[in-house]
Structures are given as C-alpha cells and as structure tokens.
Amino acid sequence: MKIKSIFDEKEVVFSLEVFPPRADVPIENIYQTLEELKDIDPDYISVTYGAGGGVHKNRTCELSSIIKEKYKVEALAHLTCINSDQRTLNKILARLKAKNIDNVLALRGDKPVDGDPLGDYNYAYQLVEHIKQQTNFGIAAACYPEGHLETESLDQDIEYLKQKVDYGVDYLISQMFFDNSLFYKFRDKVEEKGINVPIEAGIMPVINKKQVGRIIELSDAYFPDKFQKILDKYEDNPEALRDAGIAYAVEQIVDLISSEVDGIHLYTMNNPYVARRIKEAVGSLITHINGKKVG
Ligand SMILES: NC(=O)C1=CN([C@@H]2O[C@H](COP(=O)(O)OP(=O)(O)OC[C@H]3O[C@@H](n4cnc5c(N)ncnc54)[C@H](O)[C@@H]3O)[C@@H](O)[C@H]2O)C=CC1
Ligand SMILES: Nc1nc(=O)c2c([nH]1)NC[C@@H]1CN(c3ccc(C(=O)N[C@@H](CCC(=O)O)C(=O)O)cc3)CN21
Predict the structure, then answer these.
(1) pLDDT for residue 9
(2) Which reaction equation describes what this protein catalyses (predicted)?
(3) Residue 51 alpha carbon, nearest atom of ligand 1
(4) How far apart are CA 279 and CA 205, in angstroms?
(5) How many C-beta atoms surround the C-beta of residue 180 within 10 A?
(6) Distance CA 129, CA 139 (A)
C-alpha cells in the first residue's frame, strides 16, 4: 500500500522509525522490539539506511520486508544516493520491489564519514526523479524546519525543497526539532511557496546524554532553554532524564496534534518502552482527531 493513501484517509498519521541491527548480530535480535512496536499500532514503520553516514546499509531491505510480511505493518525503506552509483541503486530498488516494498524515503544522505561521495547523485531530487521515472514506488522525502545544515538560508532551502517535491514526492518527514514554533513558521513558508504535500513532524525523544552530541552533529537543532535545563538538571540520572525526555516529546506532540499537524514520525532509536509510553500519552488525542474526519 502506498503511504500516501494513509494521509488521504487520516487527519493525523502516526509512524515510527527504526534502524537495522548491526551486520554482525542476528537480524532476530530486533524481533522483540518490532513485536512491541507493532502493539503500539503505528500506521507504518520506516527503516533507516546508513543513518548518520554509517555503513550498515544492507539490512534495510530485509528489515522492511520483515516489518511488512511478519508484522503486517506498512513499511517505508530509506534509501540514500550520495554514496551509490546508479547501478547499485537500481539493484536495491529491484530488491525492494521483489520484497513487495511499496514506499521509499528518497534521501541524499549524510556525507560519508570515510571516503568521498561517488558523484553520480549529489542531491535527493535526482534520486526522486530517477525513482519516479523508473519505478512505481510511493516516494517520501526529508525536510528541514530550521534549514539543512549545509544551506546558506532557510528560503534557499525551501526553494530546493519545492524543486524536490515537484519531481514527484508524495509527502515529507521533518528533521527533528525541539521548538514547535520553528516548525509552524516553516510550515507557513512552505505553504506560501506552493508546496502542498503533507508534512509529518519528526520527533526525537531525547532520553540519554550520548544522543545529545549526535543530534547536534546531525541536525544542529535549536535547543530551547526549557529543554537545555532538563538536559543539565538530569544528565547524571538516566531514569529522570528518560522520564523528562518522554514528557518533553509528549508536550511537543500534544501541541502539534492540536495545531493540525499532518502526522507524527517518532524516531524510536529502537527503544519500544519509550515509544509505548509516548503513544499511551497521546493515543486518545490521535483517535479523537481521526474520529472527526467525515467520509
Ligand atoms: N540515513 C537516513 O536514514 C536519514 C538521513 N537523513 C539525512 O538528511 C540529509 C540530507 O538529505 P536530503 O534532505 O535528502 O538532501 P537534499 O538533497 O534534499 O538536500 C541536501 C542539501 O543540498 C541542498 N540542495 C538541494 N538541492 C539543491 C540544488 N539543486 N542545488 C544546490 N543545493 C541543493 C539543500 O539545501 C541541502 O543543504 C542528510 O544529512 C541525510 O542523511 C535524514 C533522515 C534519515
Ligand atoms: N543528518 C541526519 N542523518 C540521519 O541519518 C537522520 C537525521 N539527520 N535525522 C532524522 C533521523 C534521526 N536519525 C538518527 C539519529 C541519531 C542516531 C544516533 O544517535 N545513533 C547512535 C547509535 C545509536 C545506537 O546504536 O544505539 C550513534 O552513535 O551514531 C542515529 C540516527 C537518522 N536520521
């Protein structure tokens, strides 16, 4: 099923993101996590591909297929292009198709940590164009409420976003952010530019200290004072930091759902406990909003 059709049906979509286990551990290691994530009843689960510029790419297809076939949850396979040539990408797309995957998140990808980009594809829009021309996958893409790290300005970034969407993107997933007002400003600007596809808000529950540096590295997201205070106050108490991180994410999501967000995409970091607590806290709001849609 194309994920686009879920957006057509529902006022607010709720999705989860996982990363594949490292290549040197059995794939079955993630089954317990998936079991628990399925119980949360997400609309779909996405699977990262070499997240953060890493090299563990080969299991995205396998894991997406398991999510769909074994757990009966719709799957979205991430695919990055900066580190691949066209032949490799075509092989991956063929494998995804053979595994009955219907949806791809078309990304440029982080610059590789070691080695140079291959150079066939430098931007996500080129991958979107290729997938659109050669296949029948539903296509999602990424967007950046605070502007992408490498962009000179948010306006310029949104120009590029418009170009990318026009090549055939069905819907967008946002980079993580910790200040909803930045997301709302971005949403207004994007609409002004004539970008009409749904935008899911990417929410990262920050539940351990190690994550913080990584998030800054990957996104350079703005940390509001009240968020910074939580990090400073509880950094040495894992349980307190976890609970505060969950509460912060819940507060963001409550506000987003009350502000007509098209969807919530939760970066679970493969932690089903945290995902479940968040879903328990906001599930009735989602049900309420979705119950309202007529026809
Ligand atoms: N591996 C994964 O699973 C995930 C990775 N990401 C990360 O998101 C980041 C970028 O990916 P995308 O958003 O797909 O890239 P993109 O190609 O849309 O944008 C990347 C950069 O290039 C600029 N740009 C875009 N089109 C341009 C053009 N025509 N001319 C000049 N500059 C242009 C953008 O403003 C931006 O700074 C990467 O860091 C990626 O890895 C995000 C989510 C998941
Ligand atoms: N620039 C960028 N690259 C991405 O891959 C990416 C984004 N942004 N934003 C949205 C999600 C969030 N992603 C993330 C975020 C954090 C980690 C991270 O902290 N990874 C740890 C290892 C986690 C573990 O194995 O437990 C790390 O140290 O890299 C990974 C992917 C993937 N996506």
Answers:
(1) 97
(2) (6S)-5-methyl-5,6,7,8-tetrahydrofolate + NAD(+) = (6R)-5,10-methylene-5,6,7,8-tetrahydrofolate + NADH + H(+)
(3) 1
(4) 12
(5) 20
(6) 10
pLDDT tens across 158-186, in order?
Answer: 999 999 999 999 999 999 999 999 999 99
Q: What are 8's two structure tokens?
A: 């057509």
- What is the residue whose two structure tokens read 């594809």? 121
Q: Which domains does the chain have, with CATH numbers?
A: 3-289 (3.20.20.220)
Q: Please list the active-site residues.
A: 17
Q: Under a CB-based contact definition with an 8 Å cutoff, are residues 72 and 89 in contact?
A: no
Q: What is the pLDDT of residue 57?
A: 58
Tell how far the Cα of 146 is from the centroid of ligand 1, in angstroms.
Answer: 13
Distance 110 CA to ligand 1 centre (A): 8
Question: Residues with beta carbon inside 6 Å of ligand 1?
Answer: 48-51, 78, 80, 107-110, 123-125, 142, 148, 150-151, 157, 160, 164
Distance separating alpha carbons of residues 194 and 278, to the nearest angstrom: 33
pLDDT average per 10 residues of sequence, the chain (295 residues): 98 97 91 98 96 69 97 97 91 96 95 71 96 97 96 95 98 98 98 98 94 91 96 95 98 98 98 98 97 62
Q: Which one of the ligands is nearest to 205 CA?
A: 2
What is the atom index within ligand 1 of the atom nearest the CA of 48?
A: 3
- Residue-wise pLDDT tens digits, 97-150: 999 999 999 999 988 766 666 678 999 999 999 999 999 999 999 999 999 989
Cα separation, 289 vs 295, whole angstroms: 14
Output the CA 288–ligand 2 centroid distance in Å.
32
Residue to probe by mutation, ligand 2, list 206, 269, 273, most atoms within 8 Å of CB: 269
Tell me if 262 sits within 8 A of 199, measured CB to CB.
yes
Q: Ligand 2: distance of its center to the CA of 110 in Å?
A: 10
- pLDDT attached to residue 271: 97
Q: Give the position, in ligand 2's atom list, of the atom nearest the Cα of 173.
A: 10
**SS3 state of residue 44:** strand
